[in-house]
Design goal:
The chain is α/β, with parallel strands linked by helices. It is built from 15 helices and 24 strands. Helix content is about 30%, strand content about 25%.
Length: about 500
Amino acid sequence: MPRASYSRLLVPKKSGDDAVLGLVYLFEPLGFETSGADLVAFFRDAAAARGAGDALRARRVRHSLTTDIPEGDPLETYRAASRPFPVGRRLWIEPGESGAAAPPEGRILLRVPASRAFGTGTHASTRLALAALEDEALDGRSVLDIGTGSGVLALAAAGLGAARAVGLDTDAEAVIVARENLRRHAFGDRVRLYAGPLDACSGKFDLVVANMLAEEILPEAPGIQARAARRGSRSALGRDARARGRGACQDADGPLEAGRPSHGGRMDQPVAGTRLLIAALPGAGESCRIEGEEAAHARARRVAQGDAVILVDGSGREAHGRIARTTREGLDVDVESVRAAAPEAHGPIHLLVAAIRSERLAWIAEKATELGASRVTLVTSERTQRFRANEGLVPRLERIIREAAKQAERARWPEVSGPSALADALGAETGPTRLILDPTGEPFPAILPSGATALLIGPEGGWTQKELETALAAGWITASLAAGKLRAETAAVAALTLARTALDRGRAGR
């Protein structure tokens, strides 16, 4: 059996900076390390390594590329050779496999094995952000980590005492890696992770940290400001983010001044109550009984009499109340108020997906919920295997969607329907934007008009020419993704993210 090989790309210290790191990351390296002060990236795919080299050459960045190195997995080799190291006054990073000696007394252990997700604590910007978190009084506070990567900053915040930390990243694979990292920590249950753009995350936070490139941070500045809990909140962006892209904490009175909420209030506001699903919301002043799985979930969250809870039924409203009493069979909730969640500013997004393997459909359903899709429809096509187009999938997907909505703190979640024949699905959509994803189409629109948007994702093997012609005849437009041909679940997440961004641009008149 031939031995596995990999490629090694080295960028000298004088040529390396954050922009170069971001450029190389686009070609999906296995991981990064530093050799002295030089940046080294490892690739399993030699073609991807050559692509990264070509991109650096086009920008006249000095580099050295070695391909087809006949050794074991370089990421595993790096992990095995990695040694734990201190960061700041209180943190201890273990970037290799677990099993090393316990950290020095008084230090908090963060196990973050090297991976494709950025942030193992070796990069200078990550160290600066970690050290900045140490300077904050985080006990009982909430933290938002934008561009979470490996989740190291969100984990550090939880380890340093934050009551709640949320990690957000547009790279779904990075979020999967970060979830694995959460399981390595006893305090990982205080961290929640989401894949999607910034506007997919709602709520206010006492501290916002964004260890990202300047060109990524600056367009998000209004959204970051909107998520700061009040004046006096902090933003980990750096005073010279415009020049260098990364930095440490600064007062919100700096370039990103946080606004005071209209309701006023204190900085030590409690974390929102446990969210529980219910068939139909009661009215304000009424009581309801919670039993079964949701009661078990409440017990797992250790709710007690008098604790605040939030009830949701998918209607777009939330019932806020308190536990009146608990029993072995369930619990009673007294509802104090019922509030309507903010509507989606850009209109509904309908995701239509050709029936594929059930575990992939489940992942699509979860991410579609997190990204704010209003409907998910299973579609049959010429290349759909019959046993995959099964109505029995719908109840399972509905359960997954409800759980995803609860974790993502959404008051409404997608309806699930199908399987529908492709011709029927094409004819049922009448909104202003109807896009069928195919590598031969025009680039995905940068701007979309407000209103209903439909996105159609193809099966394994893609659409047939006849199906594409049928879609075009029905008024649909073919659109392609910049990354080329993708697996259905990846294409679904990418299309939803791009559609939300394009709709926001259209609403803003850009």
